[in-house]
Amino acid sequence: MSRKFIVFSVIYLVLIGCSFLFSFEPGQEIGKNFVDFAKDFIILLPCAFVLIGLLEVWVKKETIENHMGTNSVFAGYFWAVLLAGFTVGGLYVAFPVAYSLYKKNARLSVIFTYINAAAIFRIPMTVFEISSLGLKFSLIRLLLSLPLIIVFSIMLEKFLQKRNFLIRDGS
Asked: Residue 28: its pLDDT value, please?
């Protein structure tokens, strides 16, 4: 851990502690929200990482290359959106899955599509949206968002390729 992280963490905890000590409501609310978020995070992440580990082991590199690689044309985008719909945990889970797809040679634009779709096409979120805002609104939003996500993902891929952008593995 970096020194800055530790310093900021200690400052944060001291401020939250002072909020409870001096009955400062906004600080108390921030502390309670942090604890609720941390609980959800601690419950969700181990399950998500087990599933990501299973994806790493069970799904062969060749399968991802065939269905989501450079030769996949539009099928890769279909699979990316479908996978994103079933992603639980939002972007906390989507980024490790995207990295797994990257390591298995998925096309960069398909990975961008997956990340964006995981942010806005998750099935539980869409069901909640339909119950709150109506089916018509949800369908319009989804039908307008999907082509834009795919188009901008392709544009971003081409932009990065023109500049010979290289993603470093970190290992």
From this structure: 93
Q: What is the pLDDT of residue 145?
A: 95
Helix, strand, coil shares, percent, the chain, to 5: 80, 0, 20
Q: Which of 131, 126, 154, 118 is nearest to 142 (CA)?
A: 126
The reported pTM is 0.77
d(CA 160, CA 154): 10
For each successive 10 residues of the chain (171 residues), what is the average pLDDT?
89 93 93 90 82 86 90 90 86 88 93 94 87 94 94 95 78 53
Residue in 96, 34, 94, 101 with CA at minimum distance from that of residue 66 = 101
SS (H, E, C) 32-93: HHHHHHHHHHHHHHHHHHHHHHHHHHHCCHHHHHHHHCCCCCCHHHHHHHHHHHCCCCCHHH
Q: What was the pLDDT predicted at 14?
A: 94
Instruction: Give the burial class of 111: count Cβ atoms within 10 A of its Cβ; 0-12 exposed, 13-18 middle, 19 or more buried.
Output: buried
Contacts of 28 (CB under 8 A, 6+ apart): 16, 19, 20
Do 50 and 100 form a contact (C-beta atoms < 8 A)? no
Q: Beta-strand (E) ranges in the chain?
A: none
pLDDT score for 52 = 83
Asked whether 81 and 113 are in contact (CB, 8 A), the reply is yes
